[in-house]
Amino acid sequence: xxxxxxxxxxxxxxxxxxxxxxxxxxxxxxxxxxxxxxxxxxxxxxxxxxxxxxxxxxxxxxxxxxxxxxxxxxxxxxxxxxxxxxxxxxxxxxxxxxxxxxxxxxxxxxxxxxxxxxxxxxxxxxxxxxxxxxxxxxxxxxxxxxxxxxxxxxxxxxxxxxxxxxxxxxxxxxxxxxxxxxxxxxxxxxxxxxxxxxxxxxxxxxxxxxxxxxxxxxxxxxxxxxxxxxxxxxxxxxxxxxxx
Length: 244
Hints:
The chain is mainly beta. It has one helix at 25-28, and strands at residues 31-35, 38-42, 60-65, 67-68, 95-96, 103-112, 117-125, 135-142, 146-147, 151-153, 155-159, 169-171, 174-175, 183-189, 193-198, 201-207, 214-222, 235-243. It has a single domain, classed as Jelly Rolls, CATH 2.60.120.200. It is globular and about 50 Å long. Residues 52-244 form the GH16 domain.
């Protein structure tokens, strides 16, 4: 668990980069601060694109993750490749900060989102075994699906990716919450099912979740489209991430 009370990010738990194997640590470092007992991830307007020469659509991202590794440069061994045949550009040493399996996990957070941005917290397999790559998405919010001050579509569920034993079961129900205010997003994870809740109210249940160690991913994204209506710089402000 992390209450983000310190003056510095706890690097025993977190790597302040987003999937650096496909780019580099220099180009994937998160923009973040710790203040008022919160982790504040942001995407300033001058932040460079992630994998600018290869990733579609163009995006900027600030993220932290609780696990990381890759194969050698030129290999295809790495976490969450975004296309077939993607090659490692910078080898990553193994890092296992916080890889839970089962239990109750919850995050208290708020989001500042415009029409081209998104924030999310998800769990994904460490992929030490290639098929252990499925995802449990606890909260995913696109700014384009937010009615400011009134409601938002909150994505939650399972993604199978390349795990032949996993299920695809994802939805984004609209909830009467203002995501700019703090809310508690949680998942109760057992071998049989995952139960997703917001502020203590159950929203979705999915049977047959993955059952292997998974790493936390916390990130805020901007998908620049060249318009003048991008809104404020997006932020994900996390008060705590807890496990029971």
